[in-house]
Amino acid sequence: MFDPSMVPTPDPNPLPAPYWVFKLLLVVTFALHILAMNFMLGGALLALLARWRQKGSQFGTRIFYDVAKKVPVMMAATISLGIAPLLFVQVLYGQFFYTSSILVAWPWFLVLVLVVCAYYGFYFVSYQGQRRHQAVGRVMLFSTTLVLIIGFIYTNNLTLSQVPANWAQKYFSSTSGWGLNLAEPTLVPRYLHFMTAAVAVGGLYLVLIAWSKWKQDQQYARAIFQLGGKAFLYATMSQFVIGFWFLFSLPKALRMIFLGADSLATSLLCFGLVAALVSIFMMSAALKKDNIRLAALGVTSVTALDVLTMSTMRELLRMAYLKPYYNPQQFAVQTQWSPFLIFLVLFVAGVAFWFVMLKRYGLFSKTKAAQQ
After folding, report:
1. Which domain holds residue 110?
2. Is residue 332 part of a domain?
3. Rounded distance, CA 123 to CA 246, Å?
4. For residue 3, is it within any domain?
5. What angle do CA 47, 53, 57 make, to 5 degrees?
């Protein structure tokens, strides 16, 4: 029988702002991070798909280089926007997160190495692609695979941080630091849920690229639109299968908070399902009528709300997992409004700057291939 007193005590330093502020910032910053990650990973996967389909597509190679040029920008955004939620997790759940990180120490250390290698590969494709056309496909696949591995390591760590009762068995069965959480029933469906979402949102990224080029070269933009829109449709539809697999892999008590036991969690699940259905019908109509504006503005807006909803559900699930070991009332609060306001101003300015960067160097930038 696991003794909850074995969980490390939280950091005794008081929070510099109310607890709810950190919870809100955690959800919002994670949603921004996951959007950037989805653009990056989904874009890279769809760029590879376009390249492999080039024999049957007039624009396959052109789409590959156009999207590949933007991937390093999205990689930078993913890393930058991922710092804040990681810090908020350490503030609110440090005793759980640090323990699980020790149990998966070597894979966790390797994340930095994998990120650097993936980053270098994406830049190689972006800047050397035209000169080394034969090699860029393999390099792109290599870097994308590294990102998929990074996501798998993160999923292992974060799922392990939510089950303190498994820590002792994990540690004493192997002290090597390679103790991935492979026996966790939710590991695979949770991982696939995030990776499939990356394909869907990556498809939306291609739709936004097509929208930016619609007046310049409609035939080419239509090809990007069709690829991105169909990727969004197929990935979102498959999420219903993967999502319910994930839901029913949860322990019954945790599953039921989304199935009626908790009104907020249940309402969010219903909203998320309805939003996904609405986005599917909207994208289907946009593809049939060649309505790029409906897809770029309407579907993107609905999907952004859905991502924020799912981020909130993710936080509710973590709270349910840790309820026997975690009490928010244990945090002392010593509000320091001046540093908090400075942080808030810098955070908003940073996000605004990111959108400017995305517009100037990412979403609307053109590759040499696109200009030919």
Report:
1. 17-323+339-365
2. no
3. 35
4. no
5. 105
